[in-house]
Amino acid sequence: MLNYRSGLDFVSLRAGLYADAFPLFLNWYPSSKSVLMPNLMPSVTESKIAFASRNELGEAIATLLARGLHAFPTIRPQTEKNIILLSGPQAESLIDLVDAINRGHGTDTAVEYMESEAWISACAENDEGGKDRAWFEARLVFTQGVCDGDAELVTPVLKTLLGRRPASGTEVVERLVREDLGYTWHQNHVVPRL
Q1: Which of 145, 18, 17, 13 is nearest to 79 (CA)?
Q2: What is the mean pLDDT of residues 28-34?
């Protein structure tokens, strides 16, 4: 692809949502007995995300940088802005991730649904990491976008670059919590309590 102003070839790689960050999407901690979800339309049960593993995304990007786009003639940018999406092999719901936690962690974490305003308040008041109300207000917008289909696009690019089927989001989550029962991704969002 050619950038007509600079004359340089370029593509923009867009990594799919990291399956490894599932604790942020669910506000899950290893001590969680339940995961709170907002009542949205369409429902969170219908949400779909083509999660990808961070490790596999890194491997695929390194492969592309090392070999060049010309080595993969089936990969074509999907937009006029030369964007190539690296997604997982299938779109799965946030509820599917809770099921994967239960399988991998050996727990029976429940899903509880609340009206949006009550959900924001409950999450902000009881968050182990001290994330505030504004964080959960932003997460509500994100979750509504997921329910509206903003993250469900699946492409074959990651599979092509890896030369194998990438792990699905539920496979990644189940493996992570099985290997590390204390797995958490909240380190960048923890607010110290004074």
Answers
A1: 13
A2: 92
Spell out the alpha helix ranges (H) of the chain.
22-26, 54-67, 94-105, 116-126, 133-147, 157-162, 169-179
Structure pTM? Answer: 0.89
What mean pLDDT comes out for the span 26-45? Answer: 95
Tell me the domain boundaries of the chain: 12-179
CATH classification code of 12-179: 3.40.50.720
Which among 22, 57, 33, 44 has a CA at the least distance from the CA of 171? 22
Quick one: how far is CA 76 from the chain centroid? Answer: 23
pLDDT of residue 194: 54
What average pLDDT does range 123-138 have in this prediction?
A: 91
Any idea which residue has 């727990």 for tokens?
A: 107
